Amino acid sequence: MDPFSPEGELINLHTAFHTGRFAAVASATTSSLSAANALPARILQLRARIAISPSSAAAVAKELASESSPVDLVAARTLAEHVASPSKDGPKDKALALSQSDGDNLTVQLCCGTILANAGQTAEALALLAKHQGSLDAVALITQIHLAANRLDLAVAELRNARAWAQDSLLVNIAESWAGLRAGGEKYQAAFYVFEELATAPPVPLGGDGEEETAGTAKALLGQAIAELHLGRLPEAEAALGTALERGPDDADVLATAVTLNTILGKDAERQAMLGRLAKANKEHPLLVDAQAKKDLFDSATAKWTPKFEVEA
Amino acid sequence: MLTKFETKSNRVKGLSFHSKRPWILASLHSGVIQLWDYRMGTLIDRFDEHDGPVRGVHFHKSQPLFVSGGDDYKIKVWNYKLHRCLFTLLGHLDYIRTVQFHHEYPWIVSASDDQTIRIWNWQSRTCISVLTGHNHYVMCASFHPKEDLVVSASLDQTVRVWDIGALRKKTVSPADDILRLSQMNTDLFGGVDAVVKYVLEGHDRGVNWAAFHPTLPLIVSGADDRQVKLWRMNDTKAWEVDTLRGHINNVSCVMFHAKQDIIVSNSEDKSIRVWDVTKRTGVQTFRREHDRFWILASHPEMNLLAAGHDSGMIVFKLERERPAFAVSGDSLFYTKDRFLRFYEFSTQRDTQVIPIRRPGSTSLNQSPRTLSYSPTENAVLVCSDVEGGSYELYTIPKDSIGRGDSMQDAKKGTGGSAVFVARNRFAVVDKINNQVLIKNLKNEVVKKCGLPIAADAVFYAGTGNLLCRAEDRVVIFDLQQRTVLGDLQTPFIKYIVWSNDMESVALLSKHAIIIASKKLVHQCTLHETIRVKSGAWDDNGVFIYTTLNHIKYCLPNGDSGIIRTLDVPIYITKVSGNTIFCLDRDGKNRSIVIDATEYIFKLSLLKKRYDHVMSMIRNSQLCGEAMIAYLQQKGFPDVALHFVKDERTRFNLAIDSGNIQIAVASATAIDEKDYWYRLGVEALRQGNAGIVEYAYQRTKNFERLSFLYLITGNNEKLSKMLKIAEVKNDVMGQFHNALYLGDVRERVKILENVGHLPLAYITASVHGLQDVAERLATKLGDDVPSLPEGKAASLLMPPAPIMCSGDWPLLRVMKGIFEGGLDNIGRGAADEEDEAVDGDWGEELEMVDVDGLQNGDVNAILEDGEVAEEIEEEGGWDLEDLELPPEADTPKASVNSRSSVFVAPTPGMPVNQIWTQRSSLAAEHAAAGNFDTAMRLLSRQLGIKNFAPLRPMFLDLHTGSHSYLRAFSSAPVISLAVERGWNESASPNVRGPPALVFNFSQLEEKLKASYKATTAGKFTEALRLFISILHTIPLIVVESRREVDEVKELIIIVKEYVLGLQMELKRREIKDNLVRQQELAAYFTHCNLQMPHLRLALINAMTVCYKAKNLATAANFARRLLETNPTIENQAKTARKVLQAAERNMTDAAQLNYDFRNPFVICGATYVPIYRGQKDVSCPYCSSRFVPSQEGQLCTVCDLAVVGADASGLLCSASQIR
């Protein structure tokens, strides 16, 4: 039986992971799970911890430093190392090696696929992920890689395939929303519904020792806010984003979206504040990188005009 | 059959509905006539004057009358308001079977066993015609609803149609009545005013009933041969159409249904049967166990029937009248006839969507009961009672909202109820296995879920949740986790309505409304005596609902009240503000505007939104005893205070709320002792000694007043009281006051004066007043009383109060939030020009009176310099539309994630690129991050060469058009393009233009801010704002050409201000150069400014020139100022004084480069006038003018473009290119 199928033990954990309840997943009690599910559960928890923050990822890397088998843990460690310090080449090489040697292992596919995608080696990443055996995580990652490469058509095809066998699974719905946000038009609305559902659904208790959570993680709310932003409903987007900021005050993606939204709303003071917080949360965030690139571009473009102007003057 | 009301009684032989009120008359075999209210289920009256069975009864359509006929041969006409029989019509010689009023004339038709039918005039109380011809008992006779016809049925096996046209003609003038009396006899024998038109033969046994069709020339009859026959007639003949067989005993009554093509008959076989008129087949049969049916009656207006039987009667409906509907946002889907229809609340557009039943199928109670709609999938679930409960699933085609008559093949299934639970999932109840099936839109089961209770219906309860209903409870059930989220004991719930925020739910049962939270926590229950029909939540969380005859509201705390009454039941679909949208029983959409004031007021009070409460008190006519009582009961006497004009009520409320000021005012107005007394008590309670004193004074209550002075230590007033008492000759008062004052001499004096010499003596000697004591002792002589021995006497002085005079510390009375607010009504907004007073608009001018006048009227008109508006038609390197295929069309590498050979796909085209390919608008290029092309566009269109000021705008545009989605954890972020102007019709995969950070309305806001800054004299700030507008405009995109013109206008407006303000700032810099100062001030007045600004500029220039002794010029400014009709009197006054001063001495001290008689524009760089006819160059963007030497320089006004550069003109809308 597929451990992630609705009747499976891991469904709640898996759902929680993909709705962004990383802390809850990390602290969930897994002792009651059957032996077969112990490893997948552990991997999910490790991935959740990696996703929380780079520093938390570093802790994972340290914790797993001595593990050499099973290969799942090695893959997780590699991902942790990569996330902890994205600029290093070591984990990337390791990922490539792992994908050659243990390409059939799902954890390897997911962790190394992520690393390769981050490193821009999309062809390798896709080749590795293509080996998956009915894993929705892999489908989601493939979808994302396609989207990042502006191949909406491929992403949609991938999802259509997945829907054929995974039916109404939550992750398929989420991944469809990602594609929907790229497709635009009425798909925005559909995506909005999915995120809104995620954001308002009460969290399933996972038995962790964490505090009781409220409905809606930063991630789900962010999705909702982005969908609303795209739908042109700015006040609603602002409200959702506000809630997302409460849930995840240091979430770089939330902050980045807040920058965008405040720019659109023309709220300069808030935007500067968000930019500051974003720089603190993640200096490497694409928004900051892109903004810097555009600043440079502007200056170089202006340079073409200025001298000419001065000559005339 | 839907039974609405049932009675138990003796055999019911006659029935009649009231046309307006919910009343029905039942005449009984026992001789009694009952009047029932079938809605409330109460017996209103009984009329017991007939002797023996009463077989016929009928209400008058408009008068408070009814007629009855019985076995005592009597026809009685009754007035139900007076509860008595008005008169009796005698004439029949045997039992009377039926009686009926004419709908128009004052006639009654009666049928009798004496084989005659008689027509009576109930006003003249005479028989006006006797219809003879039947040769057995006449069982029934009735008027045609429109024509001059009567139909009768008789045991002689015939049905006869009578023409009474002649009779009607005779009644044209009332004088005929007398005439006719004499003709009576001829009528009897000749029968000229009523003749038999047709004799319908066909029944084999006696006919019990015959009735006309309300509109068609049809007759239906029922007879002892157990058959119902349908007859048709035309002008010349009548014939039998068909026979309806089925009853197994005598048919007692039969009639056409007024609104549907059906016949209803009842019979002694204890059944009521419904027949299809067109197909002539039985549709339905209702049976009773023991009771034979005798009579049927239909409501003249509503869809109600009644049937009388051996042991009572029933009022019933054949079919439900509630249209099935579903509301989703702004749209309403509902069923009418055989169509699904769509109604949009905002536009009130009503369209037919798709047919959902085959034409011509009349099956009763098979119409849709409920609808469920999924907005995302545009699918509708229709549930009905067909086959004991089934559903049909229709997908509404996107474009074919229209007349299409072709039936869609719906996906069907059986199940008690079906409802959408997610956008593409619906739940169906499987009652037998007590489970719900979750199905997808292909009608395939995707999941099965056992139910926690024996539910027979389910309702939506948020995505993934179901509200399940059982007989005595409802539960909310989570389908994913299969857990019960909430549970509530309720009566049988018929409908549920969720509030707009899905936080509360209203559960509607037959006679109760239960409001619960989303977890089914009970909040309040309302009980109604009559049926609850429908309801909807308004935006404020008030539940608006309807009963059979009222629209009512229910507040969150359970308070309810009537909003208005209803004539006919309606089904509320949506409440928006104070408009109620509803469906009526004919399936028509109606909107009713209600007065929401009362419940909004109560709600505000409940939510403690006192600001709302106050504004409502101020602005509306909320008043009335009920509201005051409500406020008092709810503990808001202070609020009620604001409604009341009546002083007594006001006083009471003021005392209740402790508002002493109002109480004083009211008490003054009333000026009655009792009120003053109560005021005193309350004031004393609060410690307001001043008012207590006032109250006592008003009632001349000297004792209390004295005591009050005592306890407040007011000795001065106390001595006054003593004097008053003395004047009034009030000894006790005098003595008390003296005692309070501790004034022994006074006391002794009083005692002495009243003759209590011994007491006076003792008082004096005890207190050591020896001289007085001795004097008294001599007076007393021998009767000197002995003083008590061994006691040291001391003067008892009242203790001094801790606080003397004035009020005590006042009791803190809950001070109305209201009072404060109500007192500062109407603090007007400060006049903008007043702000200028504090501003930096130059110093005040000291005036001396001078004479002199100067003439010459100047109206300097600034030439605006129209911008060249040619729009580039073609060319450029960017206008060719590449029309690249959208990204979805890029070659499909057939990707199958399972294929063994993996081919890596090539990357697709980013959205940025798509944007720039399509556009020649600089802003869109900048948003796409293509700064280089954006700059080239701007340079070409507007001659802009200096881009440094545009840097932040470019970056903002880029940032604002992208969002970042972190999809898969730890994986790269996807950049998403934010599009402009998304709407629901946008189709996917077609890229809209990018969202832009700047828009025109922002600029308008900014312009207002700039004006304000200018008014306030904050020139630097204003200049900064104006320039920022000027810098944003190149990156604006608007939709229509009209807006393009507005943008162009804006450039001109702003440019004028920038130039003016630059000059004004410059003027302030050069303090020493007086001439130049005057010149700049003068030029400033020639910029095209708003009127208030122009006035300020004129005053400024006037002041500067006057001070510099350039009186003629100053006078010119003064005149111009006066021409503007300044609203501030001070300005006008100063100007007049300047004029007067200048008139005496019309000279200029210094020559200025300023000729106001000659039109000119000002050079934007050198600030010199360019008079008409002189050469100039202009800025290609802002169109400022410059002296020719400035050509090739950067425009000093906009700081963007190069003066005199070639440019194609502003391009800021796609509509300019099309």
Automatic annotation (TrEMBL), chain A:
As for what it does, the entry says: The coatomer is a cytosolic protein complex that binds to dilysine motifs and reversibly associates with Golgi non-clathrin-coated vesicles, which further mediate biosynthetic protein transport from the ER, via the Golgi up to the trans Golgi network. The coatomer complex is required for budding from Golgi membranes, and is essential for the retrograde Golgi-to-ER transport of dilysine-tagged proteins.
GO MF terms listed in the record are: structural molecule activity
Keyword annotations for this protein?
A: Cytoplasm, Cytoplasmic vesicle, ER-Golgi transport, Golgi apparatus, Membrane, Protein transport, Transport
Provide the family line.
Answer: Belongs to the COPE family.
What name is this protein filed under? Answer: Coatomer subunit epsilon
GO BP, one annotated term: intra-Golgi vesicle-mediated transport
| Record keyword Cytoplasm present | yes
Tell me which InterPro entries the record gives. Answer: Coatomer_esu, TPR-like_helical_dom_sf
UniProtKB/TrEMBL annotation, chain B:
Q: What spans are recorded as compositionally biased (Acidic residues)?
A: 877-886
Where is the COPA/B TPR domain positioned along the sequence? 626-772
Listed A to Z, the keywords are: Coiled coil, Cytoplasm, Cytoplasmic vesicle, ER-Golgi transport, Golgi apparatus, Membrane, Protein transport, Repeat, Transport, WD repeat
SMART domains with a match to the protein in the record: WD40
Q: Name one GO molecular function term.
A: structural molecule activity
Q: Using the UniProt record, give the first listed, main subcellular location.
A: cytoplasm
What InterPro entries has UniProt attached to this entry?
Beta-prop_COPA/B_2nd, Coatomer_alpha_WD-assoc_reg, Coatomer_asu, Coatomer_asu_C, Coatomer_complex_subunit, Haem_d1_sf, TPR_COPA_B, WD40/YVTN_repeat-like_dom_sf
Segment Disordered: which positions?
877-896
Which residues, by range, are in coiled-coil regions?
A: 1125-1152
Complexes and interactors: Oligomeric complex that consists of at least the alpha, beta, beta', gamma, delta, epsilon and zeta subunits.
**What is the name of the protein in this document?**
Coatomer subunit alpha
